[in-house]
Amino acid sequence: MTFWELINHQDSHIVEFVKTLKDLIQEGVVAYEGYKFHLKVDPPFRPKEDVVCSQCCVGIELKGFFAEVLERFLALTAQRPLPKSDYDQGFIRPEDTVSRVAFMYERGDLEDQEVFILGDDDLLSVAIGLTGMAKRVTVVEIDQRIVDFIKAFCEAEGVKNIEVKQYNALQELPQEDKKAYDVFVTDPVETYKGLKLFVGRCIESLKGKGTAGYVGLTHREASLEKWRDFERFMIEAGFAITDILRDFSTYPERENMWDEFYKTYELMKSFPLERPNVDWYKSSFMRFEAVTDPVVPSFEPPHGPKELYLDEEAWATPKPPYLMEEG
Q: Is 241 in contact with 284 (CB distance < 8 Å)?
């Protein structure tokens, strides 16, 4: 490839890119001849998969290898656990889960990476496991049903590099999971306090500068004021926002089978509505990169499940049964 071709396949600014090329030439990894670069050694990775949309040349398109991953993912997750109102659960479409994995791959956050996932009702770990690309994956999940499902997948498919354990984000992160990962992924609760708690736990899991985080965040239950507050939190923590894929993930009504949830939604109490006739709840996918060693800024944590799950913007969050008993 020429310099001009290669620069489109990386993410650094020009100064850093040129320095990296010179370092690779100096180390004997890359040769530069006839104004073209070529590898002098075989890399420990498979040939690069094309996941960029062929129409817009920006988004993600599942084709080839990742289309095969989706086909297997659909078959293996057909009997997945359904959402419970106890934990504000709901999963995105299977194709969106695999698209997230493909996007992580495109951004260099999958191959040979150590990945931390807080909450996995989307079964992202299963999709990552099917690629065989990650170095290791750790899932911390409050719902024992999901823990058992992922463990059963690993046993059935012979996946050895996924660890899954039950964990409540209101508790301290286990010491062995602090400063241990290259990448985190979470779809946090979207209360002001809960959002920072979830992502704060994830920040604690990262090794340091150059690591990355992915957060699913909606515009349905998160105002722009909440977005701005969260973005400030992340910038103060040492991150730059590199990507926001708006409404990248959709929560399918039929597959989630959550009709009962609507009975407790503040939305349904505030306006006369019938049940949805379309998939309306969507989430944007944000990527952050640590430009310094990340540190969790101080914030007021939620004191118990009510503050964790519910605030003045949580109009489409089911009220857990144990909170209804409290009145």
A: no
